[in-house]
Amino acid sequence: MQAFEYANPTTVQEATALLSPQWGQADVLAGGTDLLSLMKENLHSPKRLVNIKNIKELDGIQKTDAGLRIGALVTMEELAKNADVKASYKSLSDAAAYIPSPQIRHMGTVGGDLCQRPRCWYYRQGMGLLGMKDGKSLVQNGENRYHAIFGSGPAYFVSASSLGPALVALGAKVKLVSASGNREVPVANFFVVPQNENQREIALKPNEILTEIIVPKTSARNVTYEIRQKEALDWPMVTASVALQMRGNAVSSAKVVLGHVAPKPHEATAAEKELAGKSLSAETAEAAAKAAVADASPLSQNAYKVTLARVAVRRALLEAAKQKA
User: Fold this and answer.
1) Tell me, which fold does domain 56-116+158-322 have in CATH?
2) Which residues fall within 8 angstroms of residue 136, CB to CB, at 6 or more apart?
3) DSSP string, 109-141
4) CA-to-CA distance for 275 and 117, rounded, in angstroms?
């Protein structure tokens, strides 16, 4: 780890003034569960760390007339256990509770979860975000069993966010603040598929801070179902988040979003169309699950993910079917 300046602001205004318009000059420190490991491995060497953990306005979960406001510093443990989240936004509490490490749940923040870098081993071994060498992808013909099954490149890593799929399905937005102003971005647009090594996988600018997540009020049945290799400190292989608006026993509209299968949360629009106007049953869930993976393009070693994604969608839908109207 290289030497760096350390700043400890107490307001968002102070924090944004300490950031830089260029990546690598300054970075935000919250839970630090990803950032510090990147710095220790010399994959990221900011000249200044801006600690935002003492900015009180970035904390807390508040229920509002419009929905839910989640501060960026809320930990995954707080999100998993919050009564308002569990009551109306079960897919979010599900996603947070799935994280098996109590240390990460207690330290990792919701803002950090959305901003964390990919877990791709090519990237983590210093081969770049796209895993290229001599202009060719190392991923396509290399070790790719945990990589994307959707998309045609050049990015083949999978989004590491646990909350991303659920937030996309719920239609959430993030608030981004800089010294020059504020903006709100739908979570679906916050994740970006980079086309070259100079681009990031999120829409956050180097001089911005993600301050809160705004989740609209919903009556949708919503669930997250996750499949991982082992119930230990591990990353998911596939996640499915669903949000279903019902009219009686029939689905009036649906959102089906897959995680850990593409460089950004992947909305399965074919599955959503398959569900529209139909009752939730085992047959309907299976048909939607098959539609969700119909356009998958697995790499040489990860075709098994297609089956896992189908199973995750089906099980998420059947869990949603059990929820009370």
Assistant:
1) Enolase-like; domain 1 (3.30.390)
2) none
3) BHHHHHHPPP--HHHHTTSTTTTEETTEEHHHH
4) 33
Write b or e for each residue in 271-304: b if 16 or more Cβ atoms lie within 10 A of its Cβ, otherwise e. bbebbeebebeeebbbbbbebbbeebebbeebee
Q: Which amino acid is at 201?
A: E
Provide the token pair at 245: 């608006």
Q: What is the pTM of this model?
A: 0.96
Contact call for residues 168 and 265 (beta carbons, < 8 A): yes
pLDDT digits (tens, 9 = 90+) for 72-114: 999 999 999 999 999 999 999 999 999 888 888 999 999 999 9
123 φ, ψ (degrees, to nearest 5): -65, -45
pLDDT tens per residue, range 7-47: 999 999 999 999 999 888 999 999 888 899 899 988 899 99
Q: Which residue has the tokens 């979010």?
A: 92
Structure tokens at 46: 């900011």
Q: What separation in angstroms does the CA of 274 have from each of 9, 69, 255, 279?
A: 50, 32, 11, 11
With left for phi above 0 and alpha for psi between -120 and 50, is residue 151 left, alpha or beta? left
Q: Which two tokens stand for residue 62?
A: 């508040």
* CA–CA separation, 51 and 49 (whole Å): 6
Which pLDDT score is estimated for 205? 95
